[in-house]
Amino acid sequence: MLLKIVQTGEPVLRQQARELTPEEISSPEVRSLITLMRDTMRDAPGVGLAAPQVGVGLRLVVVEDRAEYQAALSAEELAARERKPVDFHVLINPRLVVEDPTPVEFHEGCLSVSGYMALVRRARGVRVEALNEHGAPVSLSARGWYARILQHELDHLDGTLYLDRMETRSFTSAENLRRHWAGKTVAQVREALGLPERRE
Ligand code: ZN
Predict the structure, then answer these.
(1) Which residue is catalytic, options 153, 175, 191, 197?
(2) Which among 34, 57, 97, 105 has the fewest CB atoms less than 10 Å away?
(3) Residue 152 C-alpha to ligand 1 middle, in angstroms?
(4) Is 29 a catalytic site residue?
(5) What single string gives the DSSP state of each residue in 118-143?
(6) What does pTM read for this prediction?
(7) Which residues contact 132 (CB under 8 A, 6 or more apart)?
C-alpha cells in the first residue's frame, strides 16, 4: 500500500508540524506510517519524504539515497554534488545545526511540487540531532547532497518549500531541464538566465 503525496497548495505543507511523544513513536500507527512512507518514497522514487507530504502534520522524515538513483549522473556531477549513497533512516523530532555554511547551489526538486526543478542554495554541511524509529537519540553529520536532502526535508516540518528559497528565474519543468540544461554547469545556467555570477 502506498500513501498519496500531497501537492503544493495543500494547507498541511504550509503548517508547522508538531513533535511526536515517546508513546506515539512506539505506537503501531506511527510504526505503520514509517513503513508506508518508506514504500511511498521508494515508489515515487525520491530521496526523502516528510510526514506533511503525506498529509500528516508530525515531525517525522524518512531519507534514503540509493546508488541506483545516482546512475544517471556522471562521476564529475556526483563529485561536484558530493553525492554518495545514504542508507534508509528515520528522523523524528529532528534539530538541525549548520556546520559548514558555505553556500552550494544546484537544481533541486520536490515530490510535492511534482515535475519542476529550480536552483536552490543550501549550506554545505549540517548536523542533525533526532530520535530514530525506536525513540533512541541519533546524531549525524552530513555534507554535500546528503546535507541538502536533510535541509530540504526538515524545512517541510516548518511549512517551508524549496520554492521559498529558489532562484526564481531558474524554475523549470523537469522535462525542460533535461531538454535545455542537461550537462551545463550551474555557472553556465546562471549566465544563460541573466543571473549575476555568484562570488562565494
Ligand atoms: Zn520536498
Answers:
(1) 153
(2) 97
(3) 6
(4) no
(5) EEEEEEEEEEEEEE-TTS-EEEEEEE
(6) 0.96
(7) 89, 90, 91, 92, 138
CB 82 within 8 A of CB 145: yes
Picking from 68, 52, 77, the residue whose alpha carbon sits closest to that of residue 158 is: 52
Of 86, 98, 105, 85, the closest CA to residue 125 belongs to: 98
Q: What are the b/e assignments for 74-109, b being 16+ CB within 10 Å?
A: eeeeeebbbbeebeeebbbbbebeeebeeebbbbbb
At 185 the three-state DSSP class reads coil
Domains of the chain: 11-192 (3.90.45.10)
Q: 3-state SS string over 6-18?
A: CCCCCHHHHCCCE
* Beta strand spans in 56-115 (E): 60-65, 86-108
**Which residues fall within 8 angstroms of residue 12, CB to CB, at 6 or more apart?**
6, 52, 55, 56, 57
pLDDT tens for each residue of 76-101: 999 999 999 999 999 999 999 999 99
Q: Which residues surround ligand 1, an ion (CB under 5 A)?
A: 110
